[in-house]
Write a structure and sequence with these properties.
Oligomer: single chain
Number of domains: 1
CATH architecture: 4-Layer Sandwich
Strand content: 15-25%
CATH topology: Metallo-beta-lactamase, Chain A
Structural class: alpha/beta
Order of helices and strands: HEHHEEEEHEHHEHEEEEEHEHHHH
Shape: globular
Distance between the termini: 31 Å
CATH class: Alpha Beta
CATH superfamily: Ribonuclease Z/Hydroxyacylglutathione hydrolase-like
Radius of gyration: 19 Å
Length: 340
């Protein structure tokens, strides 16, 4: 069992990181990357691992948003990565305006907007949601109010369906957070800030409404929670997620990405939670999910019960990297057992 987060220790770690990097801008709550080039981006991303790992853990029911700062990482081209209280946000800026992928929580909107204003004074024209979960969509309405325009909120149609008809025990979603530009086809694309933006639907993956966003000229992919490099994926069975769908989506991301020399650089990957990544990280993650899926499938074929599968510890050799999580084992077991 993981120990509960210690807010005081988290604050101490953040303060120590800021002092070591010497990049805290007084009074703004904004971190900036002092290192140039692709190598510098990845080096700085490594410095953010400790912060990202804290934020990637399941947050408490009522986070103290007043103590959360928004960190900003220039990725490449016109794309930036924002780390805050919820899932990572991706921001693209240019002469046409501002586009943001995933909006974290509503109380974080003023801080996110303050960061965006260090990059651009243009209005927010587009919001894209990678899936339905509130740590990625909760700031939709709040950022729309602060953004200086009425943005298009793009998501797969399953996201709107889930928001408008929440399941048992799920809280209602405010109308202001609903997508107003849902798509039904396998892809949606448009041209913004001098580059093609392509939104791919990844069916039955983390949820049934997952999207991956590819900024073609900047060569950056924003994945949502299909890919979370510091923890096992959450397979939301209640909202249509499946383990095979996650593997298929990871393979699609690998198809989109192209590494540079020595498998480093090239296409950068912004995950739903955690550090900035490259194609090799996605390949490693895909292999992990596939291997664990196959192990559990083999145990199921031998008639093992869920408790027996847990006792077999099919994730043991990966737990030091991704954190022990019986929920991941349970989700795969239930998903594969339901197919019989």
């Amino acid at each position: 069992m993981k120990r509960p987060a210690n807010p005081e220790r988290q604050a101490e770690c953040l303060s120590h990181l800021a002092s070591k990097l010497r990049i805290l801008r007084g009074g703004t709550g904004v971190f900036a990357c002092p290192l140039g080039g692709k190598g510098g981006v990845l080096a700085f991303a490594g410095c953010l691992i400790a912060v990202s790992a804290l934020l990637a853990q399941n947050p408490p029911p009522q986070p103290d948003f007043s103590k959360v700062e928004v960190k900003i990482l220039p990725v490449q081209g016109s794309v930036y990565m924002l780390v805050g209280a919820g899932g990572n946000s991706t921001v693209q800026v240019g002469k046409d305006g501002v586009l943001i992928v995933d909006t974290q929580y509503a109380p974080m909107a003023p801080k996110i907007m303050a960061v965006i204003r260090t990059l651009s004074d243009q209005p927010i024209k587009y919001i894209i949601n990678t899936h339905v979960h509130g740590d990625h969509t909760g700031g939709n309405g709040a950022l729309a109010k602060l953004g200086g325009a009425t943005p298009r909120i793009i998501a797969n149609d399953h996201v709107l369906n889930r928001m408008t008809t929440p399941g048992p025990g799920q809280p209602p979603v405010p109308d202001a957070d609903w997508p107003n530009d849902e798509y039904f086809n396998p892809t949606k694309d448009f041209y913004f800030n001098n580059e093609a933006v392509i939104v791919y639907h990844m069916p039955a993956a983390h949820t049934d409404g997952d999207s991956v966003v590819f900024f073609r000229k900047s060569d950056v992919v924003s994945t949502g929670d299909i890919f979370t490099p510091e923890r096992y994926p959450l397979i939301d069975l209640q909202r249509g997620g499946t383990v095979q769908g996650i593997i298929d989506a990871l393979n699609r991301i690998i198809d989109i990405t192209v590494p540079a020399k020595y498998q480093e650089g090239g296409t950068y990957v912004i995950p739903g939670h955690g550090r900035l990544c490259e194609e090799a990280d996605v390949v490693e993650y895909r292999d992990m999910v596939t291997i664990i899926r196959d192990r559990i499938a083999d145990l199921i074929s031998k008639g093992k019960t869920l408790d027996q599968v847990k006792a077999a510890k099919p994730t043991l050799d990966y737990d030091t990297q991704y954190g022990a999580n019986v929920g991941f084992i349970e989700a795969i077991y239930k998903n594969l057992s339901a197919k019989k």
